[in-house]
Write a structure and sequence with these properties.
single chain, about 120 residues, mainly alpha, Arc Repressor Mutant, subunit A, two-stranded antiparallel sheet, 5 helices, 2 strands, about 70% helix, elongated
Length: about 120
């Protein structure tokens, strides 16, 4: 059941950020994937690395989401090496991640209190 609760809370968590930053839920999910990968590997990432890490989106969709994140200033091109583009998360991207985490904690508390759920 916990995974189902988390799934429901995810959309409640994203709503204020979607409105504030003009981002779709899937774009936020992609930003979280980039952040998690960057945290684990601690290096800039490529589209292929993120695609393997997230393993949900196809390459065409992933590139669209990456372009949206670049346009919004949440990730940037770190460097090019042998025609491979490496990306990194910007300070604005980290701020959105922190807002997302705070929003999740708030929504989780509300959800647990509202339905008297014991985790």
């Amino acid at each position: 059941m916990l995974s189902l609760y988390s799934y429901m809370i995810w959309f409640k968590t994203c709503r204020p950020l979607r409105l504030r930053h003009g981002l779709a839920t899937n774009v936020l999910l992609m930003l979280v994937g980039c952040y998690c990968y960057n945290t684990v590997v601690n290096k800039p990432f490529t589209v292929n690395q993120i695609m393997k890490f997230v393993s949900y989106y196809n390459p065409k969709t992933l590139k669209i989401y990456i372009n949206v994140l670049i346009d919004k200033g949440l990730i940037s091109i770190a460097h090019n090496k042998s025609n491979i583009v490496y990306y990194s998360i910007t300070l604005a991207g980290l701020q959105v991640i922190n807002e997302l985490n705070d929003s999740y904690q708030t929504e989780l508390r509300k959800f647990i209190d509202l339905y008297n759920i014991v985790l």
